[in-house]
Amino acid sequence: MTAGIPTRPGGRSARVRAAVHRAVEELLTETSPDGLTMPVIAARAGVHPTTVYRRWGTLGELLASVAESRFSGDIVVPDTGSLRGDLETWMGDVATDLADPDTLAVMRAAIGVGEEGGCACVADRHAQLAAMLEREASRGGSVPDVERAADLLLGPLYYRAIFTDSPADAGWARGLVVVLMG
Amino acid sequence: MTAGIPTRPGGRSARVRAAVHRAVEELLTETSPDGLTMPVIAARAGVHPTTVYRRWGTLGELLASVAESRFSGDIVVPDTGSLRGDLETWMGDVATDLADPDTLAVMRAAIGVGEEGGCACVADRHAQLAAMLEREASRGGSVPDVERAADLLLGPLYYRAIFTDSPADAGWARGLVVVLMG
DNA sequence: CCCTGGTTGCAGCGATCGTTGCGTTAGGGA
DNA sequence: TCCCTAACGCAACGATCGCTGCAACCAGGG
């Protein structure tokens, strides 16, 4: 019953799901979020509005579903041999991903509709960060807390992306690793 | 013609403006942002919907106006004699302000509607930070860059408020000053 | 005191939204 | 291959939204 996860993974349901998700992302980049309604999304996706209402119910749930798909599986956890190298590579990738206006628009919209919208954007990032720290810990190194790493690495990055208009380039993001690890 | 700034500061216009702003804040705390429409806001404020449409035009502009008023003038810049003391006191105040669910709901909604929504939430904070750093510089002390201070102080604070469900308490926020100043 | 410009209330309109019931189609198992 | 169920399309409905005339009102200046 989880919204957006069809019981039939392949076939028409998957096509409809992909078309609707793509329609949301396209509309968010082109127009203001004000005009983003279910019928408009359905028309862009080439799908009947009833289908969108029945599968997702609310614009908020649909946006959360889009955010969850958009921010999952797009970045792979690097393995350079050292925690510092992993974090620097990873931060560069995350910053590059956030530099896309399309990505930013999806994230803004997901935040605006409810509580779970923001969490859906960073859930995978937290899991990746925990995986890197865990691997380093299993190698015997002393690692910072996951909470602290998220605060000092993801905090400034996402803050810049949302609240300022400064482009968060990959090099600057890599420099944040120094703040965390000294 | 700037939205939300009446040419007549006193009188009925100001009363209507205050009533509408308060209605937006109340509705954001009670219900989901989905049902936040102009007629609903007008009904809560005891004002005709036409008035809201004519003064603000769009829900996005109204929310940006509310955010700008909400995050301006509520926190005073402290003056403890040292930059570290100023920053610690100020961070505690900002964290306490952000801990209010009402404040958080306004911020989320403002972010969701457009580009300027996020900037309206932190414009005053950046000005206050710049004022504190400027005062310390005029005393002869060496101060970090405003950008860097915002990254390391406001970044983790706002990141936690929006993307996680951990309560950002004042004590933790004061501890962030150590990261910036050593 | 009156006058002038800006602001609000009111009624009504077209358009769009969100829902419901029913028929049809496509996908997957026997 | 055939069937069966879940998913989709379709048409219609009431409700609500956003906008536009016009009239009334209030705040400030001559």
How would you portray this structure in words?
The structure is a homodimer of 182-residue chains. Chain A contains nine helices and no strands. The first copy, chain A, has 182 residues and is mainly α. In chain A, α1 (12-30) packs across α2, α1 packs across α6 and α5 (83-98) runs antiparallel to α9. The longest helix of chain A has 24 residues, at 115-138. Chain A is elongated and about 55 Å long. The structure holds a DNA duplex (30 and 30 nucleotides).
* Topology order of chain A in helix (H) and strand (E) letters: HHHHHHHHH
Strand content of chain A: under 5%
What is the β-strand count of chain A? 0
Mean pLDDT of chain A: 90
Q: Note the main sheet of chain A.
A: none
Largest interface: A-B, 36 and 36 residues
Task: Report helical residue fraction of chain A.
Answer: over 70%
Determine the structural class of chain A based on helices, strands and strand pairing.
mainly alpha
Please identify the oligomeric state. homodimer
Number of helices of chain A: 9
- Radius of gyration of chain A over all CA atoms, rounded: 18 Å
